[in-house]
């Protein structure tokens, strides 16, 4: 049996749940074929703990593909992140009260890693299935980017492809906040992540179509 | 048997479907109690036809409550409209190619009508159910506002309460457009509209809590 | 000598100044022709005081044209308001700590008044001068709308035309907040308001071009 | 005499001017001290030409500091870019009709370069002067990012510090488009860029305060 590792985060800031974990835990154990299944694991939203916990997950699960998932308040679609940068710059404290400013994720590491997933094919497949998706060129500078960078660093040079997807708030989070921020239904998130994983597994060479931003 | 009338629009502009009609048609025939049911009707997205078609629906259905529903591209929640204004000012042509500019909905009619639904109670009930909702103070100046004004004008002075709700794009519309505009799942829209109707039926006096905007 | 009355508000909420007052006070005393000059007056940002103070200004100045100006945080252009509604619904307390919810501006007054300025000609003239401007269909439900409604109510039936313009933050306000909200330079605001006044004075019949919103 | 090189772009897409060039050309020749002056140069908005033209500028001017400036439609402040990535992914064709998709800026180059300017001190100084500014973590994937990456690549390992600043539309561009996109007055842009240059020249060690984004 081959494993696809999906990670999601525990709740952070004002929230009582995190759509990234709610999504991936519903896919835990899903069989994608006779010999490929999804394994979901939760990561802490804490700079000091998340990278080490990620490395444990990688060692335990021995995945053939990894997608880390996180929440991006205010975004309206599945954002497939293209680049992880070697920088922590926390606007707010993490769940342990730490707020690193202008520190590297990995001292001495390269400035950035690109996602190794076929991101254009994934966006195309998601949109074809009626699920809003796009390429993003910044995963921020908080624990999401830290985990994304740590993941790409850990797997650099290996044959295991990996990346990061940001997801919107759940409807109940937008409802509770009483704000006008966008949200996405859990069912859409789960189906979207399933499609993203399948597309990543089944696409050897990415398609060539723009996902760019002028600025 | 008492009827609640819900109206939705046909598709317009670039779209091939309209979430307002997709939502209300799924509620058509729903029994809300032993003697109250929902009747859904479609309205054309055309200034010349929509008000007359609305009047026919009112005459046919003899409703005890009416909620007209329309699409608001770019909004992220169920927007309960508070005020309908006596003004057509079309930024784009309607489905018949007409584009009235600065004409009244009803010549000689009052400048505006307020919604007669318990809108604060509806927003509260929707949020409590985990469905993003808010009060809006402009229904625009296109066919949506024309229908809303026509509805309030037709029922002015009657005991039948009525109003208008704007809904976001469906996910497949945002996916097809490839844009970053927000969307809402059809299941959420249907459940939200059901809750809105029930709350309107069961709330005699609206709650007093702010839904205001500073500007 | 004929007077054009411009009003601006004192600072409110977290701000230490208000761009509406900063703008109009710089136009105070400006001669627009041999016998027309601008008179600027400040209004309190308080529901209990603003309408009465406005009426005093009207009585004192005996204007031939009135434009009230207020701040709209988050807007990026000169928003010429089209409609004032008979509703106070304060999301936050005013400068006296009052927060009216769902009360009328004028008990028994009409639901709304339309602006009596040539708003399309004003937008056209501003854009031609390189100053961002648009028509808005909601002035909110706070003191700005209250003043706008009170103004239209006071002058209803008279030959004196009047309206309301919302302006963005000043750059220093956006800078201080550290947010990504738009702003406009004071020089642009002052020149824009001068053009708006001149266009209103010199345009008998408004131009027919859309300023509408689909929703 | 020491030179500070500022570059701006020619107009592109639908625009007839480019605020980046309008800004820097007004600073051309400005003396910052007895022996430091600003030299402004224009770059083409074309993937095939911009890097080579930049290298010529560097060779000609022999600068002690370089800030490249570009337009970011839709942004509202001076965005000091933190990271340049080794990726071209053009959403629209450049001025020569070329639209590279998923090509490297420099084949074999590192995935990214960080800005070598004291960006936090620059944001602080700009805000203190009343000019909206922030740190950005994506310069896009068009010619702006290409120039930024090329600049950091050319100066990597040297003592010459360099970076990229994105600026908003000018007011007349927003006015002409009739859109609600934010803009900034040319005077504010010029003063802002002057402050940014002075701060970069005079700050040896950057301040430690967050400019981060959660996502």
From TrEMBL, chains A, B, C, D:
Its main location: cytoplasm. Its EC number is 3.4.19.3. Keywords: Cytoplasm, Hydrolase, Protease, Thiol protease. It catalyses: Release of an N-terminal pyroglutamyl group from a polypeptide, the second amino acid generally not being Pro. The keyword Protease applies. Signal peptide: none annotated. It comes from the Bacteria. GO terms for cellular component: cytosol. It is found in: Cytoplasm. The active site is at 81, 144, 166. The keyword Hydrolase applies. InterPro entries: Peptidase_C15 (IPR000816), Peptidase_C15-like (IPR016125), Peptidase_C15-like_sf (IPR036440), PGP-I_bact-type (IPR029762), PGPEP1_Cys_AS (IPR033694). It is an enzyme of class 3 (hydrolase). GO terms for molecular function: pyroglutamyl-peptidase activity. SUPFAM superfamilies: Pyrrolidone carboxyl peptidase (pyroglutamate aminopeptidase). GO terms for biological process: proteolysis. Removes 5-oxoproline from various penultimate amino acid residues except L-proline. Homotetramer. Belongs to the peptidase C15 family. This is Pyrrolidone-carboxylate peptidase.
């Amino acid at each position: 049996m081959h494993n696809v590792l999906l990670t999601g985060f525990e709740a952070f800031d004002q929230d009582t749940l995190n759509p990234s974990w709610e999504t991936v835990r519903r896919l835990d154990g899903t069989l994608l074929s006779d010999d490929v299944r999804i394994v979901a694991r939760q990561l802490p939203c804490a700079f000091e703990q998340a990278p080490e916990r990620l490395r444990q997950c990688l060692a335990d699960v021995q995945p053939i593909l990894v997608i880390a998932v996180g929440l991006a308040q205010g975004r309206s679609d599945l954002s497939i992140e293209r680049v992880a940068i070697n920088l922590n710059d926390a606007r707010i404290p993490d769940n342990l009260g730490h707020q690193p400013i202008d520190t590297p994720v990995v001292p001495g590491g390269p400035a950035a890693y690109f996602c190794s997933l076929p991101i254009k094919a994934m966006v195309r497949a998601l949109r074809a299935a009626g699920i809003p998706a796009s390429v993003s060129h910044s995963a921020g500078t908080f624990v999401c980017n830290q985990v994304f960078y740590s993941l790409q660093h850990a797997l650099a040079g290996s044959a295991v492809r990996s990346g990061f997807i940001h997801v919107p708030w759940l409807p109940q989070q937008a409802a509770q906040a009483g704000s006008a921020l966008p949200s996405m239904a859990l069912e859409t998130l789960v189906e979207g992540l399933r499609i993203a994983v399948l597309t990543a597994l089944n696409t050897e060479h990415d398609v060539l179509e723009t996902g760019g931003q002028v600025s």
